[in-house]
Specification:
Layout: E1 10-16, H1 21-38, H2 45-49, E2 57-62, E3 77-83, E4 90-97, H3 106-118, E5 122-127, H4 132-140, E6 144-155, E7 168-170, H5 177-187, H6 199-206, E8 216-221, E9 224-234, E10 237-245, H7 254-268, E11 273-279, H8 283-291, E12 295-304
């Protein structure tokens, strides 16, 4: 697909969600084209889920002008951007440009729009895979890397014995949502994304085709959940999607124990590789995952104004 050369692309937005089904389908198709070209996902899971909720703001860039003013079906979608709701003085954003429409100023125009719309909030923009084009775009806007998210992987080439863990049980949909949200909020109290997940966010993931309650395990003591292990299975890979330990139980090496259980669980499913995501600055988590055989193989960067931040121990986060 080539955008029409005789007419400039047309930017529409910002609009508030949820976006229409036709628009969401266009965004998914655009993200798939970019992923095919770059070898890495263009938009995060959270950004795609946020197409269906109120709050985030959206920009759509279509290839040409049209009498109807653009929109789904009027002209090909060549770029998209999303700006999240304010959180602690900042707003997170992502954008994607069709591979055939790059180097024409579209990314810069979207980034300018995001900066203007963020107002007094600090804009934080995610870029997956540390690609040269993303670095150049951020540099032109005066943004610098302020956070690094590592993907770590290990092979699952043989069965790994699972050590029994007393009190570990599968999640029960319709029963455990409130308990999980409370535990997750405590475990990730200082995390800018994971710790703010709501029951609605959890239920949205429960509706995803990959969700299996047997892959979300709660560790209970005296009827209270003190830790959890959440796995995301999409063959040939299995992801250690999230792992959280309550503050009261931290320091007991539950993170290492549950990581070992994750590896055994995924190996038993016949998967070839285990993956996880964690902040590069979370030295405790990186140390634990390295000891479990994981190695860093990719970096996602968040760009913005430099600011100090912290990350909780025994924590990983979803992609």
């Amino acid at each position: 697909m080539q955008p029409a050369a005789q007419q400039p692309p047309v930017l529409h937005g910002p609009t508030c969600g949820p976006v229409e089904a036709a628009e969401a389908a266009e965004v998914l198709a655009l993200a798939a084209r970019a992923q095919h070209a770059d070898g890495i996902e263009a938009l995060s899971e959270q950004t795609l889920l946020d197409l269906d909720v109120a709050g985030p703001r959206h920009w759509f860039v279509h290839a040409t002008a049209s009498p109807g003013g653009g929109g789904p079906g009027s002209a090909p979608l060549v770029a998209y951007a999303q700006l999240g709701t304010p959180v602690d003085g900042s707003r997170s954003a992502e954008l994607v440009v069709d591979p055939d429409a790059r180097r024409a100023g579209i990314g810069g125009a979207l980034l300018d729009a995001l900066l203007a719309a963020s107002g007094s909030h600090r804009l934080l923009v995610w870029a997956h895979g540390d690609l040269p084009g993303a670095r150049a775009l951020a540099a032109r806007a005066g943004l610098e890397p302020v956070r690094s998210l590592w993907r770590m992987t290990r092979t699952l080439d043989q069965a790994v014995p699972a050590v029994p863990i007393d009190g570990l049980r599968p999640f029960v949909p319709g029963q455990d949502e409130d308990a999980w949200v409370e535990l997750n909020r405590a475990a990730f109290a200082s995390h800018p994304e994971q710790g703010r997940l709501s029951v609605a966010d959890l239920e949205a993931r429960e509706r995803e085709p990959w969700f299996d309650p047997d892959d979300l395990l709660l560790l209970e003591r005296d009827g209270t959940a003190v830790a959890y292990l959440w796995l995301k299975v999409e063959p040939p890979d299995g992801e250690l999607y999230a792992l959280g330990v309550s503050p009261e139980a931290q320091g007991e090496r539950l993170g290492s124990t549950l990581t070992a259980r994750a590896v055994a669980h995924l190996a038993a499913r016949g998967l070839r590789r285990a993956v996880l995501y964690t902040d590069a600055g979370n030295t405790a988590a990186v140390r634990a995952y390295t000891a479990a055989g994981f190695r860093q193989d990719r970096v996602d960067l968040q760009y913005g104004a430099r600011a100090p931040r912290t990350s909780p121990e025994d924590a990983t986060m979803p992609s």
